[in-house]
Amino acid sequence: MNARLARLVDRLQPEDFRAPAHNEKVTARLGLWLGIAFLLCFVTGLLSHFVQKPPGWFVWPASPVNLYRITQGVHVLSGIAAIPLLLAKLWSVYPKLFARPLVRSLPHALERLSILVLSGAAFFELATGLFNVAQNYLWGFYFPAAHYAVAWLAAGSVLLHVAVKLPVIRRGLTRLGDPEPDERGMSRRAFLRTTYLTAGVAVVATAGATVPLLRNVSPLSWRSAGPQGLPVNRTAGAARVRDAALDPGWRLELGSMRLTLADLEALPQRTAELPIACVEGWSQNATWTGVPIADLLKLAGADPDRPIRVTSLERRGAYRTSVLPATHTHGTLLALRLNGERLALDHGFPCRIIAPSRPGVLQTKWVQRLEVL
Amino acid sequence: MRIVLALVGLALLGYGAVLAWEFATSRTVNAVQGAAWFVGGPLVHDGLVAPVVGVAGVALARFVPRQWRTPVAVGVVLTAVLTLLAIPLLWRPFGVVTNPGLHDRNYGLGLAVALGAVWLAVAAAGVIRSQKAHL
Fold it and tell me: Is the pLDDT of residue A354 over 90?
């Protein structure tokens, strides 16, 4: 059986795949759309990385308040669209796998190697990304570091691939010139349209996680409503802060000041409509009421345009502290209320940070301390 | 143009290789599982997914009447991709504990409804095309 299979694979020639889907004009069009999807993924992913680990030169604006919500939504949804595009593109070029000899020359060997890297990196990013948005961890490694490193491999190998194939791409993007469909299968146009339709359906099937209009349309959206109309990514139980958060002795440490919840509620309050936008692509607008961070800075005798470090009651974990940059102090609230009610414990009671245009992991909950930097 | 693209591509690849090397050498599990995921995609695709697609295509062409071929092919493709997207939501041995409001919908039902709509559309398209062909 194995020997017969090996003989079959050996005998198979690229010319044996006669379906119009394998035409280079089809390949070029799919490659163009896949390239656009990957470019969107790469740029928005890089932005998200910089927002979370800002290099010195990087400034992320506080307005529009939905900016991060949009960039991260685009990141995840362009990744979803890339799944059918990648599969169709690879099916289009699959016959090339059977070209013999395997290696013709050194440049040819390097090109094949770069395509292996491209294919490996593309599958790696899409597969780990898809499982990560479902918070389903089929691996023991730290996802952000892996997804980030491989993103550079994917970007580099895509550019190299485009450079190598540029003449073919130019030729391929001329008129589709579809001959009448025949017995060899779907026409070029039908194959392309099926792929585009599938990419669109895949996006609509999942986009309810971030697009309000599709909330009740998307069957595979990875979120629903949650307490106070907002999903919770980390509960007080999981963060082990339940007792500390409910302790009547809780005080907010602000410089040398110690403020009770009643003290905070007695300060002038502001109400703002701000989104929670998760790195996993879901997002939700909500109405928050609390004390503007700039007011708290003034209260502590500090310049309201100073960055601050926020520390949670959480004892450990990557999301225990966050730094709020100076650009965000005026738009950010230390929120006490959510959608007209006192904050639920899982949403960060007694108080949490809610900043415009920032990823959810930086919207520190169960705040214990604010330090002026 | 091509030279510039290639050089920039090589530079990004080089940076990615440095990051991947740091990632892989920091923990054994990173190296082993990272490599498995990296190589797994092309292997599973080229060795399993693509041959299945090819066989399915040949079977479609052989057994499905001409007027039904495109609608059925579209239905099969949509079924495969929607099912693929649903796998991480339906099969969660390594999923985090369900948080309030996240990953808590009935995805089996959602997928079934979506596939029902797809095949209803396939049936409608097939019937219309057959009718037209008879006229």
Answer: yes
Q: Between A222 and A67, where is the model more confident? A: A67
Q: Which residues of chain B neighbour A164 with C-beta distances below 8 Å?
A: 2, 6
User: How distant is the Cα of B69 from the closest Cα of chain A, in angstroms?
Assistant: 8
CB A222 within 8 A of CB A136: no
Task: Work out whether strand A283-292 and strand A308-312 pair parallel, antiparallel, or are unpaired.
Answer: unpaired
Inspect the interface and report whether the beta carbons of B50 and A223 lie closer than 8 Å: no
CA distance A38 to A42: 6
User: Is residue A223 helix, strand or coil?
Assistant: strand
Any idea which fold A229-372 has?
Sulfite Oxidase; Chain A, domain 2 (3.90.420)
Say if residue A137 is exposed, middle or buried (CB neighbours under 10 Å; 0-12, 13-18, 19+).
Answer: middle
Rounded CA separation A79/B38 (Å): 17
Mutate to test the interface with A, among B3, B19, B49, B55 (most CBs of A within 10 A): B19
Considering the domain A2-214 in this protein, what is its CATH number? 1.20.950
Its ipTM equals 0.96
Residue B28: other Cβ atoms inside 10 A:
10
Cross-strand partners of A97: none
- Token couple for B86: 């649903």
